[in-house]
Write a structure and sequence with these properties.
There is one protein chain. With 240 residues, the protein is of the alpha+beta class. The protein has a domain of 84 residues. Helix content is 38%, strand content 20%. It contains seven helices and 13 strands. The strands form five sheets. Strands 1-2-3-4 form a four-stranded antiparallel sheet. Strands 5-6-7 form a three-stranded antiparallel sheet. It has a two-stranded antiparallel sheet with strand order 8-9. Strand 3 and strand 4 form a beta hairpin. The protein is rod-shaped and about 105 Å long. The chain binds zinc ion (ZN) (3 copies).
């Protein structure tokens, strides 16, 4: 059966149904009477010519404000109920909230970040965005600059206190200070590479304050001595 034949049969059926209900066909098809009538979310406004196939069209306004023309028989048989917003709303309410995996639009991802449902956000991934980025940009009033990072105060993930860092180096510097404070009670203390103990920077050798090699000179000397002796011991073993 061709498309056209299908369509013709549908129209005939619709007219038959209307007659069964006791409506006169001519009455049903009058467009003047449809002005102001409701079809789901649509309200009839005025007649608007015919479409390519010769179907009479009625201009309608949707409750959401969209104005579009609809084929009259589709309005009458209930195929057209809205501009498309009704379908979207039903889909949203049914699928999202009632789905067994729906967790209230908020969850913690594999990396430990709080993710919130924000389908229109510019930095979303699969409709979810990192909550701390959303919050930081809200406070900042604009998008985060390129290279900027967000630090969680005292490395807590609850997003109550955030620090916006201008770059990665400054962000890592904050983490070093946080760890120093937790381990030693002083943010300025640094960890020795060899003995893994925090100490006053005065007693340490520091090549670079941000991301350098840090050690006690004593620990380094000991390490170098051990390494040399280890290497000497190792040579005869190899030949045996
Ligand atoms: Zn609508
Ligand atoms: Zn951080
Ligand atoms: Zn040391």
């Amino acid at each position: 059966m061709t498309e056209l034949r299908k369509y013709q049969e549908k129209t005939v059926n619709m007219v038959r149904d209307e007659i069964k209900k006791g409506n006169k066909v001519n009455q049903v098809m009058k467009r003047k009477e449809m002005v102001g009538k409701r079809f789901g979310r649509l309200t009839g406004l005025c007649a608007n010519g015919r479409d390519k196939r010769g179907n009479k069209l009625l201009k309608c306004e949707c409750d959401c404000g969209n104005i579009k023309s609809y084929v009259i028989y589709k309005l009458l048989n209930g195929t057209s109920k809205s501009c498309g917003c009704l379908k979207m709303d039903i889909h949203a309410s049914r699928v999202r909230e009632k789905h067994p995996n729906w967790r209230g639009g908020k969850h913690i991802n594999g990396a430990g970040y709080v993710m919130i449902y924000s389908p229109e956000y510019h930095r979303m991934h699969h409709n979810y965005a990192k909550e701390h980025i959303v919050m930081a940009e809200k406070v900042l009033g604009k998008h985060l600059p390129v290279g900027a990072e967000i630090h969680h105060y005292q490395e807590k993930i609850d997003n109550n206190k955030l620090v916006i860092c201008q770059d990665h180096a400054y962000h890592m510097f904050l983490h070093v200070r946080t760890r120093a404070f937790i381990a030693s009670g002083d943010v300025n203390y640094r960890k020795c590479k060899y003995c893994k103990e925090y100490d006053d920077p005065k007693n340490l050798f520091i090549s670079d304050i941000y991301s350098g090699v840090i050690y006690h000179r004593k620990c380094n000397n000991e390490y170098q001595k051990n390494r040399n002796s280890y290497a000497i011991k190792r040579i005869p073993n190899k030949h045996n």
